[in-house]
Amino acid sequence: MQEQHDITIAPRPQPASRPARQESNGGPRFHVYTESSLDKIPQIERLSAAERFNMQVVANVLPFRVNPYVLDQLIDWDNIPADPIFQLTFPQTGMLDPADFERMAELIKAKADRKLIKATADDIRLGLNPHPAGQQALNVPTLDGEPVSGMQHKYRETVLFFPTQGQTCHAYCTFCFRWAQFVGIQDLKFASTDAAQLHAYLAAHPQVSDILFTGGDPLVMKTRHLAAYLLPLLEDEYRHVQTIRIGSKALSYWPYRFTTDPDADALLELCERLVKGGKHVALMAHYNHWHELETSAAQDAIRRVRDTGVVIRGQGPLIAHINDDAEVWARLWRKEVQLGIVPYYMFVERDTGARRYFEVPLVKAWEIYRQALSQVSGLARTARGPSMSAGPGKVEVQGVTEIGGEKVFVLRFIQGRNSDWVQRPFFARFDPTATWLNHLKPAFGDEHFFFEEEYESMATGRIPTPVGASALSH
Questions:
Q1: Separation CA 181–CA 154 (nearest Å)
Q2: Nearest-angstrom CA–CA distance, 106 and 438
Q3: d(Cα 20, Cα 392) in Å, to the nearest integer?
Q4: pTM
């Protein structure tokens, strides 16, 4: 059995349309700058002392990590601070509540003890809704009556797995809704090294068709670790697991993972083996701006991934300061289609972390989505949104209209904790300032949305969530 899981790497043929891979010792070497080395970034010298200090304050609370590829090839340093990739990766003052910012700034100015700074940072972090949408309370599954660490099972067909080796990223996004994974508070982390437990859970749940490896970024880990989780899924007892998804921003933040890194070929060989073994392999690529697709390194990586039979799907949130513009989204989707990527989701910025800096009113998000969609061909209209990944499920804003003299949002579930909620339209009173589902009130004088009573019962434990109920095996 073990022999079946070993990977033997043969030299990959290089199509004429793709340049041959550089030897691993000839490609860029990965290294990062973090909060402790922020002032060592060469380009930062052009910023004022006050700007650098403000960055340091925020980076002591929210995670910061960047690498030379992002610095040298993605950020336009002549357009600071407006450059979208700069906003995407570097801390900004407005990402913290002003009172929290001043609280941290005073400690740093006073050169306070690091333990006090960390304790204060942790206190601020706990007020930033570190695990939105019931991730810890409702999404953790059980096996033989015990919670399964490093796993979430919110929707019937899809399990999320957080491999410990992939709980970091090549660079961090400032808006990240999984920021709590990276700040060193162990109780906030989802992570597991227990491949056997993952496989046992999947074997016991034949209704699961999709496994999503997420993080962090699973493609930070070495290919041999990824293979230990994935290759057993080719065995017959996992034939119900039809799709393997890998959530990653490596195509944007470190495309050399697929081209010149030491085990880049091993990663592509693994992907080919899974595809030839009958699995649909989807790389869920996180894209926030069309500029991430413009470099030759990124396009080389995309070609290599597609050559394995893997399908790349592009998704990301609509966020202020970065992509809250219909032209940006239209250009992003057109470029994705040109490169063979399937536009998949436009998300609404989640209610966590630095959301106060990034959130966009739902009505504006819908208008941007509609205007962007009107500019692209049908092949780019596969992108769904704007979608809120809220506690009850993925809720899409379908539009704004007037019914019976009342102006309303038209909403529907794309996914739901109860699959019976999916595709059921419902209506909320129009609110031009609302940025999240819990800001909305039912329309037409209704007291509750149709799903609220059942969801409240799930949240309080009065009834089991459907993924944990016996109905799942029906």
A1: 19
A2: 34
A3: 47
A4: 0.90
